[in-house]
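quick one before i forget lol
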Amino acid sequence: MSSPRVRTITYSTYWIISIACLITVVLLPYIKWHNWPTTVRSYVLAIIIGLVVAKLLAAVFLLLDDARRGITWIIRKFSAPKDVTMEAVNGLTRSQFLNRLGLIAGGSLFATLVYGFSNKYNYHVHKIKLNFKNLPAAFKGMRIVQISDIHSGSFANREAVLKGVKMINDQKPDLVLFTGDLVNDRATEMEQWMDVFRQVKAPMGVYSTLGNHDYGDYYPWPDKQPNGYSAMQHENLETLKKVHADLGWRLMMNENTILQKGEDKIALLGVENWSAMSRFPKYGDLKRAYEGVADVPFKILMSHDPTHWDAQIRPEYPDIALTLAGHTHGMQFGIEIPGIRWSPAQYIYKEWAGLYKEGEQCLYVNRGFGFLGYPGRVGVLPEITVIDLA
């Protein structure tokens, strides 16, 4: 048993945090939330959500106890006292056991989310080798590095991000492909990171595409008209396109390019965001991106949202051998150990992280370089993907 002083400190801390979170939630409509520093906003939001989820988890055990006591009451009401099992087991009642189990479960979840704050820059390299029958001989052994979901507006640690960029270059890629969400909302988020990501280099170039956040659809533009148009939002997108160019990245806007080695060719296609889910924008035009490459034997497509693969790519474009996507972040939470692979993302996305194969086609879903909302990672760590073609 803990001392009265420890219990007082624990309970006081719990209630101070809970009350502070409640006050913050109540005041949200009256404060300029979007003007808060991004880091502060992320941590406050993460703590509030973490506390609510932890409380809900603990409440499950309390409800189980209530149900148990209800059943016990019914049994006592209609049975003789000798038919009722004694409450106490080794000095601990079932109610106390369930209550403590609930507190342990909720507290462990909250502690895990807090621990995850330390993992947001814990970049991991995932290496895979993919064999394709129709890959031209000159491109066998080509190394592609895929990064996705940078979300530069969430960053606060320059040295940590520089470390991640160095890890990208250390893979010695022939080609670097970025599959969208360079920013959270606004192009200005990249201003302090231009010199960092300008360091990403590859002999065959760095190519990029847009993700759902790059369009600024989730930002409350002050000049937004009733029909949804905002001149500021339009200007923001044009500025972001220029950011890609200033980085030395070729932004693929529903278009393609031919990569050639000697007489051998492969086609690289890039589409704007295309999602099978109605809540995400569908700006991509794969038909336009495909124009002129039907006769190229091997094709790689960059498309930010993995739902595009089952909805259109596989049924309508079976000759696109490799699709690269991101978007899900693997929910930044899950378990990925030998024999166990789980994340809440799997209940929303059929393909949520890693490699998927159907026939001769492959999809790789990058877990994201950055983070959004929750300023951390638990189990599903930030990723640099290395793909060796064979």
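fyi The first strand starts at residue 88 and ends at 89.
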